[in-house]
């Protein structure tokens, strides 16, 4: 395990993971305060892992940290409270739009998880809204967001039909960002739940009845049922090498509220092709929070060798740089991403991701009928971008 993961600053973060800290968490926290905590490093970790609201809720009355650190945490928590209210209102507006147009939609992570498992939407860091929409509603939602001042990345309106089709094959969502000056949440508009790696194969369009309903404001939204939601979070986190503790903190808070029948969870994980993600997630929960691994999951964990994956994950958690920040980071991320591939050597969805991209299309706009030229030009365009930057 990384030395940084074992630092007193990182361990202090972990004691703030649950909305209701256990007596063990509180005792460990007091013990850590007897060591020398580097408050600047601690706050950097809080920002890096996007967990200020939970951390502030636990440490706001502590006499063991400085008033300066408390103020920094408070400012982050207050900012998040405003963003959370904005995100909740946008979810209500999006659901009203979907309902009015008889379109099925599904909200992932974010505000629904905060409200259901944290009991307060401001306790979980808010950045974006992930919403899956069936094919017939994608243009409707995109037009609505554009009318509200959002712009997509890449800009959908500038792409040729072949570029759009290629993007849909190699991606599972389109990001919408508010125009400059607008205080609105980011939106990730999904047409698939997960990317091309082949895990968590649920398709809401095939069996929308598997979803659960949750009341947000005056609207009833669709969310994943508890088992599928837990498996989705395990898959999402593992595929991203658990880069942010924000994602990991969801799991112990869910486990404190839901009594899972692990035989059923394991059976569903097998259906959705994500047993290894479930096992890896519990290995991390056991390592970092001493959460017992259910016997059913422990019995199948022996079939896998997770040593390399866990090493990559702990290095990812400890890293203070962003994903793809430099060549070494990019290579490490690529190796880990390829290790998660479940579709074999010829996973065309994954291969196509690296053959061309919207960055190429923006640098060299080509007409629809010349799209094929992007493939041989790819190395030259990559060098061109690097030289210019």
**What is the CATH domain class of the largest domain?**
Alpha Beta
Which second-level CATH architecture of the largest domain applies? 2-Layer Sandwich
Overall mean confidence score, pLDDT: 91
Gyration radius over CA: 22 Å
How many domains make up the coordinates?
2
Distance between the termini: 36 Å
Structural class: alpha+beta
Morphology: globular
What is the percentage of strand-forming residues?
5-15%
The number of distinct β-strands equals 7
- Unreliable residue runs: none
Percentage of residues in helical conformation? 40-55%
Number of helices, counting only DSSP H or I runs of 4 residues or more:
18
Neighbour order of strands in the largest sheet:
1-2-5-4-3
Secondary-structure map:
Layout: H1 8-14, H2 23-33, H3 39-49, H4 52-59, H5 67-100, E1 105-108, H6 110-118, E2 128-133, H7 138-147, E3 150-153, H8 161-170, E4 173-178, E5 186-190, E6 212-216, E7 219-223, H9 226-239, H10 245-255, H11 262-271, H12 275-289, H13 295-301, H14 307-318, H15 327-339, H16 348-353, H17 358-363, H18 374-388
Helix pairs in contact: 1-2, 1-3, 4-5, 9-10, 9-12, 12-13
Give your account of this protein's structure:
This protein folds into two domains: 8-352, 2-Layer Sandwich (Beta Polymerase, domain 2); 355-388, no CATH class. The protein is built from 18 helices and seven strands. It has helices at 8-14, 23-33, 39-49, 52-59, 67-100, 110-118, 138-147, 161-170, 226-239, 245-255, 262-271, 275-289, 295-301, 307-318, 327-339, 348-353, 358-363, 374-388, and strands spanning 105-108, 128-133, 150-153, 173-178, 186-190, 212-216, 219-223. A five-stranded mixed sheet has the order 1-2-5-4-3, with helices on one face. A hairpin with a 7-residue loop joins strand 4 (173-178) and strand 5. Helix 4 packs across helix 5 (67-100), helix 9 packs antiparallel against helix 10 and helix 12 packs across helix 13 (295-301).
């Amino acid at each position: 395990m990384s030395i940084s993961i074992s630092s007193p600053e990182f361990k202090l973060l972990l004691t703030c993971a649950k909305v209701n800290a256990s007596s063990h968490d509180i005792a460990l926290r007091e013990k850590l305060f007897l060591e020398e905590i580097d408050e600047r490093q601690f706050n950097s970790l809080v920002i890096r892992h996007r967990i200020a609201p939970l951390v502030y809720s636990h440490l706001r009355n502590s006499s063991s940290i400085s008033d300066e650190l408390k103020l920094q945490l408070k400012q982050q928590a207050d900012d998040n409270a405003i963003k959370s209210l904005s995100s909740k209102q946008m979810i209500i507006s999006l659901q009203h739009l979907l309902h009015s147009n008889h379109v099925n939609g599904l909200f992932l992570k974010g505000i629904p998880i905060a409200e259901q498992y944290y009991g307060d939407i401001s306790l979980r860091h808010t950045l974006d809204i992930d919403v899956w929409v069936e094919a017939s509603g994608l243009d409707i939602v995109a037009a609505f967001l554009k009318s509200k001042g959002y712009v997509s990345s890449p800009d959908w309106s500038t792409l040729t039909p072949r570029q759009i089709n290629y993007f849909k094959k190699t991606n599972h969502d389109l990001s919408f960002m508010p125009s400059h000056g607008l205080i609105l949440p980011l939106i990730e508009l999904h047409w698939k739940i997960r990317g091309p790696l082949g895990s968590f194969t649920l398709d809401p369009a095939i069996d929308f009845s598997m979803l659960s309903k949750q009341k947000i404001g005056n609207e009833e939204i669709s969310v994943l049922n508890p088992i599928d939601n837990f498996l989705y979070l395990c898959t999402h986190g593992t595929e991203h090498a658990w880069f942010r503790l924000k994602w990991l903190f969801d799991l112990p808070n869910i486990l404190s509220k839901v009594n899972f029948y692990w035989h059923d969870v394991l059976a569903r994980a097998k259906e959705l092709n994500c047993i290894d993600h479930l096992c890896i997630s519990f290995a991390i929960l056991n390592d970092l929070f001493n959460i017992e691994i259910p016997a059913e999951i422990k019995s199948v964990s022996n079939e896998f060798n997770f040593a390399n994956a866990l090493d990559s994950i702990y290095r990812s958690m400890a890293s203070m740089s962003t994903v793809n920040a430099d060549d070494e980071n990019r290579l490490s991320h690529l190796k880990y991403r390829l290790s998660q591939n479940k579709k074999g050597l010829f996973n065309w969805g994954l291969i196509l991701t690296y053959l061309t991209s919207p960055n190429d299309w923006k640098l060299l706009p080509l007409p629809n009928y010349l799209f094929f030229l992007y493939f041989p030009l790819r190395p030259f365009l990559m060098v061109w971008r690097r030289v210019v930057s």
